[in-house]
């Protein structure tokens, strides 16, 4: 198969012929129909993820068609249209037994713990636990954004942040996950302030329904009349983490959505404010496959439109350059030709 191969961290990414994967007994191989280019791929390429072993194939926001099935798989057959969360759970550990697959103790992540979806084929483990059937109405291109950024934003807003109608939500960082969060928060009736230094990203945030867009997070307290009820750091940096916490009103909830590898520096969380204002500091790490139906039904009803986030469709040969420059162009890029 053709695959985007990474042979050293921070080095060139080149399309090569490599051996086809075979499914594990409980896994499948999926013929990739679309694969989104995400900031997490950039982290993998930059050497921020200790799970990545070279040579490596990145890519984790995928949708496609089941092409081969392991002996122990019960629920899936060749030809099924599927997507998958970026955290593939084992289904049997203690968090999994509680339904919290996104923090599975034995998780695998395509594009991190094994070769990912910037390739014609990708192997996925524990298929009966992790695959999500796609309705025919949902294109692979749209679905590719669900496994990581859109699903992550959906759960961060609804499940972890528990955003209620009428609340103010500050979205700090308007890349793919931030724009998704804007859209989800607006859909649940929240009032959204979106913050990003890029005018292009702010324009897209307005198009997703943000009531205010700001270049400087310090102005959130003023435009919300005393601070946001919920702040989301959707970029993942020491500055944006602290900015979200400082934007909150008393009893507000900070949700850390963007990854914050130690290589980027540790945030100086203002614990004095956390105590004095009784703030909650919460983490959000993807979404389990069994939580997808609620999101898919809102997409089916047209209340969520992940397709509006996709600004560029690329070939596999263009994927390497897009990955290295992720975040420079606004919106979401998806590889749709392999
Ligand atoms: Zn598990
Ligand atoms: Zn991602």
From TrEMBL:
<dbReference type="Pfam" id="PF00107">
    <property type="entry name" value="ADH_zinc_N"/>
</dbReference>
<dbReference type="InterPro" id="IPR011032">
    <property type="entry name" value="GroES-like_sf"/>
</dbReference>
<dbReference type="Pfam" id="PF08240">
    <property type="entry name" value="ADH_N"/>
</dbReference>
<comment type="similarity">
    <text>Belongs to the zinc-containing alcohol dehydrogenase family.</text>
</comment>
<dbReference type="InterPro" id="IPR002328">
    <property type="entry name" value="ADH_Zn_CS"/>
</dbReference>
<protein>
    <submittedName>
        <fullName>Alcohol dehydrogenase catalytic domain-containing protein</fullName>
    </submittedName>
</protein>
<keyword id="KW-0862">Zinc</keyword>
<feature type="domain" description="Enoyl reductase (ER)">
    <location>
        <begin position="10"/>
        <end position="335"/>
    </location>
</feature>
<dbReference type="InterPro" id="IPR036291">
    <property type="entry name" value="NAD(P)-bd_dom_sf"/>
</dbReference>
<dbReference type="InterPro" id="IPR013154">
    <property type="entry name" value="ADH-like_N"/>
</dbReference>
<dbReference type="InterPro" id="IPR050129">
    <property type="entry name" value="Zn_alcohol_dh"/>
</dbReference>
<keyword id="KW-0479">Metal-binding</keyword>
<dbReference type="InterPro" id="IPR013149">
    <property type="entry name" value="ADH-like_C"/>
</dbReference>
<dbReference type="InterPro" id="IPR020843">
    <property type="entry name" value="ER"/>
</dbReference>
<keyword id="KW-0560">Oxidoreductase</keyword>
């Amino acid at each position: 198969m053709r695959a985007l191969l990474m042979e050293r961290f921070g080095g060139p990414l080149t399309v090569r012929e490599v051996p086809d994967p075979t499914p594990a007994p409980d896994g499948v191989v999926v013929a990739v129909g679309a694969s989104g280019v995400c900031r997490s791929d950039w982290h993998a390429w930059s050497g921020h993820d200790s799970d990545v072993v070279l040579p490596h194939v990145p890519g984790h926001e995928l949708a496609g068609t089941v092409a081969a099935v392991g002996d122990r798989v019960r629920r899936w057959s060749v030809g099924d249209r599927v997507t998958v969360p970026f955290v593939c759970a084992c289904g049997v550990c203690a968090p999994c037994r509680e339904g919290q697959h996104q923090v599975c103790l034995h998780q695998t992540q395509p594009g991190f713990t094994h070769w990912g979806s910037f390739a014609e084929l990708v192997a996925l483990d524990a298929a009966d636990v992790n695959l999500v059937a796609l309705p025919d109405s949902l294109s692979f291109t749209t679905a590719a954004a669900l496994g990581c950024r859109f699903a992550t934003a959906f759960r961060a807003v609804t499940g972890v942040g528990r955003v209620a109608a009428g609340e103010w939500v500050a979205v700090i960082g308007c890349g793919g996950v931030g724009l998704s969060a804007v859209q989800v928060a607006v859909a649940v009736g929240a009032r959204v302030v979106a913050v990003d230094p890029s005018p292009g990203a702010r324009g897209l945030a307005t198009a997703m329904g943000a009531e205010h867009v700001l270049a400087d997070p310090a102005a959130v307290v003023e435009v919300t009349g005393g601070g946001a009820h919920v702040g989301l750091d959707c970029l993942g940096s020491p500055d944006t983490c602290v900015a979200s916490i400082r934007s909150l009103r008393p009893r507000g909830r900070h949700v850390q959505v963007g990854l914050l590898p130690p290589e980027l520096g540790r945030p100086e969380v203002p614990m004095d404010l956390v105590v004095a204002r009784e703030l909650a500091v919460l983490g959000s790490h993807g979404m389990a496959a069994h939580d997808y139906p609620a999101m898919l039904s809102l997409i089916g009803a047209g209340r969520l439109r992940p397709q509006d986030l996709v600004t560029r469709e690329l070939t596999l040969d263009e994927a390497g350059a897009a990955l290295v420059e992720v975040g420079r162009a606004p919106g979401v890029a998806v590889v749709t030709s392999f």
